[in-house]
Design a protein that fits this description.
This protein is an alpha/beta fold. The radius of gyration is 23 Å and the shape is globular.
Amino acid sequence: MLKKFFLSNKKRNFSTASIWITGGSDMDSVGKKGINKFLSSLLTRGCEGFNNFTLSEYIESYGAELNQEVFEDGISISIKSLNEHFSKLFPLLDLIINKPNLLEIEFQKVKKSSINFIKKDKENPFNICFENWRRIVYSNHPYAFNTNGNANDVSKITYEDVLLEFKNFKCRDKYLISNNLEINGVSIETLETKPLEEKSRTINHDLCPNNRFDYINNDSNQTIIMMGDQTCSRRSSEYLPLKVLESYLSYGMSAVLFKLFREKHGITYDLGVHYPIRSGNAPFLIFLSVSNEQALFAFELLSTLWKNLLLIPLTDAEIFLAKEKLKGSFLLGNQSLDEVLQRKIQLISYGISPISEIDLNSKIEEISSLGILKLTNKYFSKPFLSISGNEKICLEISKRWKKNF
């Protein structure tokens, strides 16, 4: 069933419509990791009345855009055009999700492209390190796997497998949102505000250090370090305090990571925090990349910072600045209509009323340093560490890791 929503306060000279289909790579079955990425790509390669080429030509003739993306929790398909052309293009979304061609010749093209993309992805040590981190943190959970799947599974996926997955796809909940009032949907401004509910699972912290550490040997002069754990769902009341912590650590040149690793010591060329929106327990990790010569020193700095997060609450000045930067990031995110629609329809699919985000500032103000300290001890007391680098350096970090954590 398709549920439709619109934003009446987002009028532009162009219109966008985005469909969120519940279930993304988390729906990939064992041995078929990447099949929903396959399906998503095939959906936009022709539908009733259009083959792959005529669909592209039709969309481009109006200067419009058709995009699709697979997430861990869902599939997003969107179309954007000038207002005067929208009525001609909007019906394509219905055809794409309900009457796609799903031709075998297009399947073979998607399969070849997927295999090549996975191979290319493996050439990046940063991606390899992250995939390794996800594997040890989430084990057999769907979040442990890349949405693109893996080479072994993708090579075995058949055309019949994708057709079968489409039958599953047709039964999933679907949500559409647009800034065009002609879609005859429900205004999200009329939705009732729902309080966030605690949905986070208990984190298993009984693992020995060896189960929380792994490394990948590479021959470059680069050492990549990723440290963190799984946290909570976007539905959780703990989400915003963790966003304030993310702001404190990584937003702008005033962020702790920037000041510590770049401004004070000048030892990193890539660092930050990864904390995406998820319907389940979202990952929260600090990542950084340094030269082999600075790797051990960088790890000691990170270890000290991590311990401070567990022991010392943020000062009034630190939490004030973190909150202001977080508010600014939300304002910045509201400048792009595509981002606004994507975020709101994703929240609706999670069972969260997006109208509640109007109250973000007041909710942020209620967050305390002690509340954040409580969460760091809940989620980060026994973090997971993934490293990509020289084997000798990785083994030395492993020794220090066991002593520290």
